[in-house]
Specification:
It contains four helices and nine strands; from the N terminus they run E-H-E-E-H-E-E-H-E-E-H-E-E. The protein is α+β, with helices and mostly antiparallel strands.
C-alpha cells in the first residue's frame, strides 16, 4: 500500500465536499486526511485528500472524481516534489515540574505557545507530519489533554499549479 495525496479544484458550492467524500465512501476507500478551503477565487475551493492504497486504487479514484460535475481539476501530488504541511494545536498539562521541559521542546521544534494558564499550555505547531508526530511523542509523558490537527495541505513545487483557466 502506498500513500497518495490528491489536490482537487472544485466549484465553491454547498454539497460539493459531500459528493467528493461520498465517492470515497461508496467505493470503500478510507480518507486519512481531508482539508478544504476557498482559493484565491471565491468561485473555487481546493480539497486536499490523503489516502493509502494501490496504484490501481489511485487510478480508480481519479477516474471517479473526474466524473463529478463540480470537480474542475485533479492532481496527484508527488510527495517528493511538493510542500506538505499540517497545523496542530496541542493542549498540554502545565505543572511546575514539566514547564521548562515543555518550553524547551516548544523552542526546539519552532512551535509557539498560544495560550498559557496555570494548569495548561496550548502549543501551535506547523510542519511536516514527521515533525508534528515527533513533538507529540516528546510531550506525551507530560500529559496531552486535547489535540486538534488540521490535516494535510499541499502544493506542488515550482511552476505547476492546480488552477482552471477561469480562475486566472
Amino acid at each position: 500500500m502506498n500513500n497518495y495525496i490528491i489536490g482537487i479544484l472544485v466549484s465553491n458550492l454547498s454539497g460539493v465536499l459531500s459528493r467528493v467524500s461520498g465517492m470515497f465512501t461508496r467505493r470503500c476507500f478510507n480518507i486519512d486526511s481531508l482539508t478544504v478551503g476557498e482559493t484565491d477565487s471565491s468561485e473555487f475551493s481546493r480539497i486536499t485528500i490523503a489516502f493509502h492504497g494501490t496504484s490501481h486504487d489511485k487510478e480508480q479514484i481519479v477516474r471517479q472524481l473526474e466524473k463529478l460535475y463540480d470537480v474542475k481539476e485533479i492532481e496527484v501530488l508527488d510527495e517528493h516534489n511538493s510542500v506538505i504541511r499540517e497545523l496542530a494545536l496541542i493542549k498540554i498539562r502545565n505543572t511546575e515540574e514539566s514547564r521548562s521541559a515543555i518550553m524547551t521542546a516548544v523552542e526546539v521544534f519552532r512551535s509557539k505557545i498560544v495560550d498559557y494558564s496555570p494548569t495548561t499550555l496550548v502549543c501551535e505547531l506547523t510542519g511536516e507530519l514527521s515533525k508534528i508526530n515527533a513533538f507529540i511523542e516528546l510531550v506525551r509523558p507530560y500529559g496531552i489533554i486535547e489535540m486538534d490537527r488540521t490535516g494535510i495541505v499541499a502544493v506542488e513545487r515550482g511552476e505547476n499549479c492546480l488552477k482552471t483557466e477561469a480562475a486566472d
